Amino acid sequence: MSNFSILKFGGTSVGSASRIKALYEIVTTLGKTKKLIVVCSAVSGITDMLLLASNAATHSEDEMRHHLKHIKSKQLEIINDLFNGRSRVEISKSINTLLNELEKLLMGVCYTQELSPRTSDAIAGFGEQLSCTIIAEYFKYCKTAAIYCDARKFITTDDKYGEAQVDFKVTDEKIKSFFKETNTIYVVTGFIGSTASGISTTLGRGGSDYTASIIGGALQVREIQIWTDVSGVYTADPRKVPEAFPIAKLSYIEALEMCYFGAKVIHPPTIQPALNRNIPLFIKNSMRPDDTGTFISLDSGDRSHYVKGITSIDKVHVVTLQGSGMIGVAGVAARVFGTLATHHISVILITQGSSEHNITFAIKPEVSALAKK
Ligand code: ADP
Ligand code: ASP
Ligand code: MG
C-alpha cells in the first residue's frame, strides 16, 4: 500500500478559472495531510469540440477553424483569468505550442479528407493535455510544488482506438516506477494512454475516472476521490428525477450495476481496479465540498431501503427470439448466447419466459444488425 490519495476532477470542475481556483483550494487543503495525485479531465465541452473539429476537417477547413478558434479562446480566457505578468507569457507559450501541434493534425485531416480512428484519438486527447498543463502551472504560480504528467508515459493500451484496453501488466509496473512519494503534487492527464509503440489512444468517453482508478490500483492508494458536479451517486439521474437524493454508501457491486446501467457520474470500468484491491472510492461535489457525497466500499451500508437506486440507458436494442419449437427444448439458450459470444457481442440484459417460448436480450445498437443475422 502506498501513502498516495488520488483526486480526480471532471470537466465542469476544471471548466473555468474560478473552478480551477476552487480545485486548488480543495487540493491544497487535503494536501496538508496527504500525498496527492490529481487526475483532471479536459475543460467541459472541449473534448466534444475537438471531435467536432476533427470531423469538420474532413470536409470544411472553415468549419474546422471555427471549432479550433473556440477551443483556443476558451484556453486563453482561462489563462488570462488565472495568470499575470511573466507567468502569463510563459504559460501562453506552452499552450500555444500544444495548440499549434493540434492545428497541424487537423490540417492533416483537411488535406487528406480522411479521419482515421487513430488520428481521431490523437486529436481527442488534446483537451486533457491543455487543461492539465494550465492546472500544474497554476499550482506553481501559487507557490505549490506540482508536476505535469502526461499519462501516455505510463498507461499502455492496445490499439482499439476510441476505447483502448489497458495492458495492466505493463501499465502497473510503469506506474509503480513513475510516482515517488515526495511533497510534489502530480497533475495527471485523464482519458489518454498510448500503445506499446507510442501511438496516442483514449480510454473511452468519460474515461478520466478510469485513469484515476488505474493509477490507484497500481499504487494501492489509500483512497480515490472523484470530484464532480453533483454530491455523489444519486438514487436516480438528478437531471431526469428532481426528487433524487445522494446515496451515502454503496457497495462496489451496487455501484457497478448503477454505472453500467446509466449512472454517468462514474465511468463504468472505474470500479474494477478499486474493487480488486479494496480501495475506497468517494464521489464528491467540487462545488459543495462539505457535502458528504457517496462512499463506495465492500459494505453496502444502510439496508432499510430495498431499492438503492434507479438508472436507465437510452440507446439500447432489444432482441426477442421466439417460437413454439423452443418450448421445453434444452440447449436453446446455450446456442443463442454461444452464437452471440462467437461474434463478440456483449449482452446487457437477459430474460426468458417461463414457458421457454421466448428469450429476450438487450444489446448495444451498433451490434444489433450482426446479432439479428
Ligand atoms: P464529470 O465531468 O465530473 O466526470 P459527468 O458529467 O461525467 O461529470 O458525471 C456527472 C453527471 O452524471 C451529473 O451531472 C449527473 O447529471 C449525471 N448522472 C447521471 N446519473 C446519475 C446518478 N445516478 N447520480 C449522480 N449523477 C448522475
Ligand atoms: N474529456 C473526456 C470526455 O469528455 C474524458 C472525461 O472527461 O472523463 O469524454
Ligand atoms: Mg465523467
Task: Describe this structure as you would to a colleague.
The protein is built from twelve helices and 14 strands. With 373 residues, it is of the alpha/beta class. The strands form three sheets. Strands 3-5-2-1-8-10-11-9 form an eight-stranded mixed β-sheet, with helices on both faces. A three-stranded mixed β-sheet has the order 4-6-7. Strands 12-14-13 form a three-stranded antiparallel β-sheet. Helix 2 runs antiparallel to helix 3. The longest helix has 28 residues. The termini are far apart. The mean pLDDT is 96. The chain binds adenosine-5'-diphosphate (ADP), aspartic acid and magnesium ion. Magnesium ion (MG) binds next to loops.
Layout of SSEs?
Elements lengths: L3 E6 L7 H15 L3 E6 L5 H12 L3 H22 L2 H28 L4 H8 L1 H16 L4 E4 L6 E2 L10 H11 L6 E5 L2 E4 L4 E3 L5 H12 L3 E6 L20 E3 H9 L10 H7 L3 E5 L8 E4 L19 E6 L9 H11 L6 E4 L5 E6 L4 H5 L1
Parallel strand pairs: 1-2, 1-8, 2-5, 3-5, 4-6, 8-10, 9-11
Antiparallel strand pairs: 6-7, 10-11, 12-14, 13-14
The structure holds adenosine-5'-diphosphate, aspartic acid and magnesium ion.
Low-confidence stretches: none
Distance between the termini: 49 Å
- Structural class, by secondary structure, is alpha/beta
Count of distinct strands: 14
**Strands side by side in the biggest sheet:** 3-5-2-1-8-10-11-9
- Shape from CA axes? globular
* Nearest-integer average pLDDT: 96
Largest sheet data: 8 strands, mixed
Radius of gyration: 22 Å
Helix content: 40-55%
Bound molecules: adenosine-5'-diphosphate, aspartic acid, magnesium ion
SSE order, one letter for each helix or strand: EHEHHHHHEEHEEEHEEHHEEEHEEH
Portion in beta strands? 15-25%
Helical segment count: 12
